[in-house]
Structures are given as C-alpha cells and as structure tokens.
Specification:
Shape: elongated
Number of helices: 14
CATH architecture of the largest domain: Orthogonal Bundle
Distance between the termini: 44 Å
CATH class of the largest domain: Mainly Alpha
CATH superfamily of the largest domain: MetI-like
Length: about 400
C-alpha cells in the first residue's frame, strides 16, 4: 500500500514538473531563438524553414580549380556524398527520343547540335537535336525543356562530375557562431556611446532613487512632525497620476531649465519616487524601535542609526528597489524619445539607438537581434541576481539573525 502511494506521488510530481517544464520552454523559446539568431549570418537568418542553431556552408579546395569552392550534397551511383560546385548556371537541355519520351537525357546545350528540323509530339512542335551518347555516337532527339544547372565534382576524385540544380541542392553545413555581429552593432553609428549613456543614466537614477527613498522612508517611518501622515498620503497618491498627464508639464519645465536634449533630463526628474519611499517606509516600520531607542540613549544621531544599524539590515528592501529601478531606467523609451532629439546621437540611450538601428539594419535581422540581446541581457542578469532578495524582503522583519 505504501509503495503504491509513493509511486502515485512520484507520478504526480513528475507530471507537474513536465507541465511546468513545457510552459517554461515555451516562454524561453523566443529568447533562445533571438539569442541564437544574433550569431547567424544574414543569409542564414532568411533561411526557410528557419533553424534554431547558426550554421555556415562548408568550403573546400579541389586540385585543378582556383579558390575555395562551396560544398553541396549530390548523388553519385546512388550514394549521397559532398560535391564541390565548380561551375554555375550551365544551360542544359532535357532530351528524349521521340519513341521513348520517358527516358530523358540531360546534356549541356553547347554539346548538342541543332538540326533545324521540328517534330510534333503529342500535339506540340519540338526541336530536333543531335545529342552525343555513350560510345561517341550521336542520336537525334527532341528537346523537351531546358534549364540552368551547376557542375559539381567530387573533391576526393575530380574526375567524377555531376550536373544538378544549384538552388535545390542541399549545402554541406557546420555549426558556427558569429560573435562579430555584436561588435558590428556596437560600432554602428554610436551604439557604443548609447550603451555608455544608458549605463550612466541607469546607475545614477538607481542610486538617486535609493538615496531619496531611504531618507524619505526613514523620515516618514521614524520622525514625528506635524502633517507627516497627510503629507505621506498626498505623496503616495501621486502614484495614481498617469505618466501621459505629466509629459507636457514636465517637458515645459525642462524647456524652462534648459535641459532639453541633455542627459540631466533623463536623470534628475526620476531620482524621486513615491513607490520607493513607500517601500522603504514599510520596511523601516518593521524595524524594532527598542534597538533605535537604545542607540539614541548611547548618543548616536539619526544619521548614524540609519547608516550603521538600519541600512545593513535593509539589504533585501534596497536590493528589491534597486532591481525595479534598474529595469525601469534601462528600458525607458518614451521619455527619452520625447526629450532627446533624434539627430543628437551623442545623447542617445540604448532604446533610441535600437529604434534607429531598426531602420538602418532592416535587411540584417541578425544585427537587430544582436542589438536586442544587448538591451535584454543586462536587466535579465540583474533580475536573476536580485530575485532572491524579493522573497527575503517579503519575509524579513528588519532584524538579521
């Protein structure tokens, strides 16, 4: 009975993990495809059907031919083997004897001789040619059709030659990464400057919000002054004001100050946050007052208590606020689009540079996805590293054990 229960429990857990893994794979697949495509060549990007991993065509050298030649798979005596393309777009004709139309022969047009005569077959007038066959003789045949084929030789034995359609031939490929795509994107018209600007703006906004939120949160949580609760309620209520309502007055303020088209307009207005102040206040409220009172009796000032006692115990809350702020500042697009001139590439942030890249590299999806990966990877890493602090912030009481 117990073994049956354990088996049932194991099967239930296995089913749960299978379903969760399936949904996790579906969620991660677009990101994985973006990452792998960013290492492809443009030709490999447009390949149909699309493939997940990047591949490059294999080239080889053949004695008697100059340069490296692309390899394709061809069939020789019923065996599939790599063949090197030595000549492309050879005009060939498909010929057959009038009495045996099902038995066709493909011969280059420069090896046949037109007779000038025509023969009606199945109601269609077909030209007659003298076609060379085995044994050195020629046979009069009608031309059924003509096309362009490629000439392929066996790299191991160049005397073995076949003709086949190059477009429908399967190339010989190998797995290959192209990390130079990232260098090309970064070097493309100031992308490196945009990356530097984004890092600078994000770090300054993040540390600015941490400083103002810690000071504001501590004041609202621990200091007593007239109108404290009312002021906090009003300040917290600003969260409900939609950003679109603030754009016009905020832009007018930037014009009056003279910060339009400057990085200061991306930093100073955003170092004050009601959400961060609320988050830190709620955490400071849980901190035991007895510890703070004991420090005050010992002669410590408010700033010393905050710096030496409260802040070391506030790592989870500060890490949570830093993570959210980093994600917001790094991915900010609409406000930079409004306040930074499109032609001022020296002050572009990454989101604006990617918007410009979308137009310049429209024929190179691999470069677009490389730029997207550059924009996505840093906040993803920050989120993964700070994820454990979210749980710790929710369960912590403000006292470290």
């Amino acid at each position: 009975m117990r073994s049956s229960y354990r088996l049932l429990t194991w099967l239930q857990n296995a089913a749960v993990y299978l379903v969760l893994s399936l949904f996790a794979g579906l969620m991660l697949f677009p990101f994985i495809y973006m990452l792998t495509t960013s290492f492809k060549t443009p030709a490999d990007t447009f390949r149909y059907p699309p493939r997940l991993l990047p591949r490059d065509q294999v080239f080889t050298r053949v004695p008697g031919y100059e340069g490296e030649l692309p390899l394709y798979y061809g069939v020789v005596n019923g065996e599939r083997r790599p063949m090197a393309l030595v000549q492309n777009s050879i005009r060939v004709g498909v010929f057959a004897e009038p009495s045996r139309l099902e038995q066709t022969l493909t011969v280059p047009l420069d090896q046949v001789q037109a007779t000038g005569a025509t023969l009606t077959v199945n109601g269609e007038a077909l030209e007659v040619f003298r076609v060379p066959v085995e044994g050195g003789t020629t046979v009069e045949m009608v031309k059924l059709s003509q096309t362009a084929l490629g000439r392929f030789v066996d790299p191991q034995d160049p005397t073995i030659t076949i003709l086949q359609n190059t477009r429908t031939s399967t190339p010989v490929e190998r797995l290959a990464l192209h990390p130079e795509n990232y260098a090309q994107v970064i070097a493309l018209r100031g992308m490196d400057r945009a990356l530097t600007n984004t890092t600078l703006v994000t770090l300054l906004v993040m540390f600015g919000q941490l400083a103002t939120s810690v000071l504001g949160g501590y004041a609202f949580a621990r200091l007593r002054f007239p109108g404290r609760d009312t002021l906090f309620t009003v300040y917290l209520g600003t969260i409900m004001i939609p950003f679109v309502v603030l754009i016009t007055p905020l832009y007018q303020i930037m014009v009056a100050i003279g910060w339009v088209d400057h990085l200061a307009s991306l930093i100073i207005p955003w170092i004050f946050t009601a959400y961060g102040t609320f988050l830190m206040r709620q955490f400071f409220i849980t901190f035991p007052k007895e510890i703070e009172e004991a420090a005050l009796i010992d002669g410590a000032s408010r700033l010393e208590i905050l710096r030496r006692i409260i802040l070391p115990a506030s790592t989870p809350a500060m890490a949570t606020l830093a993570t959210f702020t980093f994600l917001y500042a790094w991915n900010s697009f609409f406000w930079p689009l409004v306040i930074i001139n499109t032609g001022n590439e020296a002050n572009h942030v990454l989101t604006l540079a990617l918007n410009v890249l979308r137009g310049r590299a429209v024929d190179s999806p691999n470069l677009l996805l490389a730029g997207a990966a550059i924009a996505i990877l840093p906040p993803m890493v920050i989120f993964i590293l700070g994820q454990r602090f979210f749980v710790e912030s929710a369960t912590s009481s403000g006292v470290k054990g």
